[in-house]
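Sample pair:
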Amino acid sequence: MVQINMAEREITIKVVYYGPALSGKTTNLQHLHSLIAKDSAGKMLTLDTADDRTLYFDFLPIQFGTQNGFSVKLKLFTVPGQVMHKSTRKVVLAGADAVVFVADSQRSSASANAYSWRDMEANLKSNGIDFEQIPKIVQFNKRDLGDVKPLAEIKQAWGDFPTYPAAAFVSRLAWRNTPPRNCSSDTPKFVANWCFASRWR
């Protein structure tokens, strides 16, 4: 649940980037860290294996102010996508206020995406988090590669569910009919706004 400290005028939100191995979760946070002013972002913590896969998690704290004087702290985490790290994903997901599901747009990754989505649902429920109520969006990453699902096919399959077509490596996206924007910086803003809306609806 979003933590609100009225005395300190501080709001803390935990956002977890979930998805299959090598879908681009860590790349999202790395790019965010490179974009945000140093006085707004803390040190990014990454634990990798020898082959550059996330072993435990990535953590990136971000802080910014609001017009009404509140300080908003976003705690961004990623989880390891490898099947063997199921228990670690459950631990990192505990206490999440929102989820960004990073899917691989390539057709060959459809089964891995589906497995990871079911795994996310199971881990949320195991942590006592309502899967239907928690704010979540899907980022269809790797749009710059070959054999990806067309955007029309994705839209038809997901309907009005919030989806971000993206290429995290080159940091460009096109969502619906809007001009390309920066995927890494836009995504947490969208999730933060949704968290506020969900908290007070």
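The first helix runs from residue 25 to 35.
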